[in-house]
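Input record (one chain):
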Amino acid sequence: MGQYSMQIWGVSGSVLDAIQQHWTRVCWLAWVRTYPAGLAQAILRNCEVAVSTSRALEEGVDPASHANQRGTPASRINFLESFWMATVGGAKSLGLKVGQFSEGYAFDAIVMDTTLPDSNLIVWSDSDTHEDVLQKIIYNASRRNISKVWIQGKVVKENQ
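The corresponding structure, as predicted from the sequence alone:
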């Protein structure tokens, strides 16, 4: 994983090794499950909406204002920042020990199957970086891609 990704997820040691071993088939994501907020109760969809909304904020949407006088400069975020806000950032702001893979934190996670036929989630293991895979998951994954879910360390969903 890239350095930025490890900071986002707080991944280290044997957990990181396990993630890297299975990366071409699945992608592990930390998630804040207790307090979903935003347009939908789907973390990946909210990440996508946050990126789009930040772009509208930066560019401005008031047609009555001249283009160079509207918008909020430097308010654009990218998919990594939106994912961080939805996991680690959201948990920190609420004082919760969730949202990252670290000792003492609740193990809440999902496994995304990137090999489903007829899926919009296509990963090229020989050329996609881990950041590319996360971006594809945010923009292209659907419920069908979720193959396993843990909440508080217990498996609550598992596709056979």
